[in-house]
Amino acid sequence: MITTADETLLRHAIGIAARAVTLGDAPYGSLLAGPDGAILAEAHNTVRRDNDITAHPELKLARWAARELDPEAATRTTLYTSCEPCTMCAGGIVRSGLGRVVYALSTEQLVELNPQSGEWPTVAQDGPALFDEARAPIDVYYRPY
After folding, report:
1. Longest dimension (CA), the chain
2. How far apart are CA 69 and CA 19, in angstroms?
3. CA 7 from chain center: how many Å?
4. What sequence ranges are listed for the domain CMP/dCMP-type deaminase (predicted)?
5. pLDDT per residue over 119-145, tens digit each?
């Protein structure tokens, strides 16, 4: 359930997205807030500027949280973002241990506003293969001491 406090922080994330456009960057902004609503970090999309396909604000903040917060503190945070996280960012958010995500536009709404946002090709994948060879480094790494 989205509260009035959530809406305030979500508006701030939308403002970050609007500022990104004035800088020549893509219109996506995010912030990470602690349980008291204090903003811990914020970021905007710098994919073009950094020539880095992973420079989405949600992933930047997930990386920041994984690096700067202990796991218990991360679970008490909320990521506010102007658009629903893509699958790349969603994976990073899960791995970083963030507690909650609140977003403004859904992916479907974004695609309606900008149809090119949904034009991603599929990539062929083959596997699994070479199980015994592939498991060897896994077994060594996860072997109990």
Report:
1. 54
2. 27
3. 19
4. 4-121
5. 889 999 999 999 999 999 999 999 887
